[in-house]
Automatic annotation (TrEMBL):
Residues 19-199 form the Beta-hexosaminidase eukaryotic type N-terminal domain. It catalyses: Hydrolysis of terminal non-reducing N-acetyl-D-hexosamine residues in N-acetyl-beta-D-hexosaminides. Residues 1-18 form the signal peptide. The active site is at E386. This is Beta-hexosaminidase. Its EC number is 3.2.1.52. It is an enzyme of class 3 (hydrolase).
Length: 631
């Protein structure tokens, strides 16, 4: 039974469900449902024939518990004990097996927990002093049952990242009277449905209990693109594994599903490679900043449990000066004073190109790393950007900067790396230069086998999306003019004190950066790309319809010359969420900004209230309250 006040109120709430990212289809009624403290859930599969698990869990199978005083608290305590028992968040513990069923079970429990525990009172989304909450004196109707029905049962065997992440991501949610029904064809679809579900519930400002508006409701949803990624550079400045687990959680709440770790670069090598221990012990900024093999695995497991495929990039052959801390003989043009001739930023140094020692090193490295990441992802990023020609003049194994001389050697190097990746069942990802500047031959989609079609990541210019597609490759977009998150914070270099080059160093002839530094010290990709800019970037502009099917998706990228653990969240959010809606819902337009600022504004308020993710407001509070501020 709805109160009179409440029915009147709904007439000026234009969008009852402010969901982010926007689902494909939403239809809502005008009812209210409170969350039953004794809500039960059942996960069925195989067309409903098989009960995979129930919520609350079967107590007989779990550790005995102490005193608790409500059905809800009881269920949650059981679950927390179960989590502690399973050790899902233990970075130093022994290896744990995950399965699709354990992932689904954890997702159901965490969703129900967060629905009950939400503290989010959406006062900012309503006019000042308006009554926006359901009347607590009215009779309450409760949502008491959640039924998840998956058409196929998950494999009972070992977790298979290829099958899991390539699953049908579509889902349907129906809420009617006391029951919510979720329909999916795969576990990954169920995870996204549960993420949407969490966004339904609000806390009441004066009374206990969570409620949702707009019932009965039906949501039908599916993603536009398969690859919805964020790239984080953990090499230029120090990061901790917990920075990425926290990021994964927020990504999953926007249905982002790929975390690309740019794990090493010229400035530091934080990643432990047990068979080449000196790489990290000598190449990390400090011993305590080494990312152990166990911590990488824990991040990948955490990602898989959230539907996020966590994959690693060891950028090669450029961006490798940090290898010289351990293996100086493998690196050419190491740490030159005139670095700008040999690298895009200090310090210079890249792997020698015609060296069996380098190929042996690469084999040892990849035979160690790749079998460890493959249980949780089917992607491996081989790097390949910004290979510097001049560095090979100083490389005694080639002593040439002629593209015609270097190209066959680079092809051999890349064939070597991709060959190892393919042996381990990876789909390789490569930066655009390998295809577009060096014209290398890369395993192509034309053989119709997704596992061996190289994904080409475009960063320099949107026109190159088309160039990659025309060469028959699948593409990941992320043009720096639009989707780099590090832009607009200013240049990170100083002008040379005398205003000249160091003595004997001809770096001004190479168009070197330092001589160009002037107030106000803007960076190369300024201005700052605010969320509206990211949101309205159209990767399909100028691309003909016959080519767009080969777009795998996109990534926003966080390069870290001026970012570390302290400011990471501020720089990621809410802008990653803006990209997430482009990737999930499809290309956005300027006319959608008004609606987006309200929904993203609500997403931000929920995120900071319930998850304490640091980020700036999406809007001035008054604008949110008034339903927008237009020019
Ligand atoms: C599941 O698969 C069926 C058959 O391909 C399809 O019609 C449906 O849209 C898919 N998604 C959901 C949520 O049922
Ligand atoms: C929901 O409740 C209404 C009113 O009690 C009833 O008419 C309707 O059939 C119910 N719907 C379902 C799906 O049970
Ligand atoms: C590469 O190294 C081999 C063996 O040292 C040498 O014979 C060959 O000339 C080198 N290639 C180039 C392009 O320098
Ligand atoms: C690659 O092909 C383009 C276009 O044909 C050409 O301009 C370029 O020089 C080639 N690069 C190399 C390294 O051969
Ligand atoms: C599309 O092409 C036009 C005209 O060449 C150009 O101005 C625009 O920047 C292009 N857009 C993208 C996203 O590449
Ligand atoms: C740049 O190089 C030229 C010749 O190589 C030299 O005459 C000039 O002084 C240099 N300028 C600076 C700012 O170093």
């Amino acid at each position: 039974m709805l109160s009179h006040t409440y029915v009147a109120l709904l007439t000026y709430i234009t969008n009852v469900m402010a969901l982010w990212p926007q689902p494909a289809e939403v239809s809502t009624g005008s009812g209210v449902l409170w969350l039953d403290p004794a809500l039960t859930a059942t996960f069925r599969c195989n067309g409903g024939d098989v009960v995979l698990f129930d919520y609350p869990p079967d107590l007989g199978k779990l550790p005995v518990l102490g005193f608790v005083n409500s059905a809800y608290q009881f269920a949650q305590t059981v679950w927390d004990e179960f989590q502690a028992f399973a050790g899902n968040h233990d970075f130093h513990g022994s290896k744990k097996a995950i399965t699709e069923t354990s992932i689904a079970q954890a997702a159901v429990h965490e969703t129900i927990k967060s629905m009950h525990n939400t503290n989010f009172v959406p006062w900012k989304l309503h006019k000042r002093h308006s009554p926006f909450e359901p009347d607590v004196m009215a009779q309450r109707h409760y949502l008491s049952s959640l039924q998840i029905q998956q058409s196929h049962c998950p494999d009972v065997g070992a977790f298979d990242p290829l099958a899991f992440f390539a699953g049908d991501e579509s889902y349907e949610i129906m809420i009617d009277n006391a029951t919510a029904t979720i329909q999916t064809n795969s576990t990954i679809g169920a995870l996204w449905a549960l993420q949407t579900f969490q966004q339904f519930f609000y806390a009441h400002s004066t009374h206990s209990g969570s409620y949702m508006l707009g019932t009965p409701a039906r949501i039908v949803d599916r993603p536009k693109w398969r690859h919805r990624g964020l790239s984080v550079d953990i090499a230029r400045n120090p990061f901790r594994p917990s920075d990425l687990t926290r990021t994964i959680d927020a990504m999953a709440r926007t249905k982002m599903n790929r975390l690309h770790i740019h794990a090493t670069d010229s400035q530091s090598w934080p990643l432990e490679i047990p068979s080449l221990p000196d790489l990290a012990t000598k190449g990390a900024y400090q011993p305590h900043l080494v990312w152990s093999a166990d911590s990488l695995e824990a991040i990948q497991i955490h990602g898989a449990s959230r539907g996020v495929s966590v994959f690693v990039e060891i950028d090669m052959p450029g961006h490798t000066a940090s290898v010289a801390n351990a293996y100086p003989d493998l690196i050419a043009a190491y740490n030159r004073l005139d670095w700008s001739t040999f690298a895009a930023e200090p310090l210079s140094g890249q792997l020698k190109l015609n060296s069996t020692a380098v190929l042996t090193f690469v084999t040892t490295l990849l035979e160690d790393l790749l079998p460890r990441t493959r249980p949780y992802t089917s992607l491996y990023h081989i790097g390949g950007d910004e290979v510097n020609l001049a560095a090979y003049l100083l490389d005694e194994t080639v002593a040439s900067d002629e593209p015609q001389v270097l190209r066959p050697l680079l092809q051999k190097f890349i064939d070597h790396v991709i060959g190892i990746a393919l042996q381990h069942g990876f789909q390789p990802v490569v930066w655009e230069e390998m295809l577009l500047d060096w014209n290398l031959t890369l395993p192509s989609v034309t053989n119709d086998n997704r596992k061996v079609s190289t994904l080409v990541q475009v960063w320099r210019n949107s026109e190159r999306i088309k160039d990659v597609l025309k060469k028959g490759h699948r593409v990941i977009f992320g043009d720096y003019h639009h989707w780099y998150l590090d832009c607009g914070f200013g240049v990170f270099l100083e002008p040379y004190p005398s205003g000249k080059s160091p003595v004997g160093v001809p770096y001004n002839t190479s168009g070197g950066y330092p001589s160009k530094l002037k107030k106000p010290y803007l960076d190369y990709c300024n201005p700052f790309h605010n969320w509206r800019h990211i949101y309205t970037y159209d990767p399909l502009a100028n691309i003909s319809a016959d080519l767009i099917d080969n777009i795998e998706g996109g990534e926003v990228l966080m390069w870290s010359e001026q970012t570390d653990s302290i400011d990471l969240d501020f720089k990621l959010w809410p802008r990653v969420a803006a990209a997430a809606e482009v990737l999930w819902t499809g290309v956005r337009h300027e006319t959608m900004l008004e609606d987006a600022s309200r929904r993203l504004g609500e997403w931000r308020e929920r995120e900071v209230t319930d998850h304490h993710t640091a980020m700036s407001p999406v809007h001035m509070t008054w604008c949110l309250m008034e339903g927008g501020c237009n020019l």
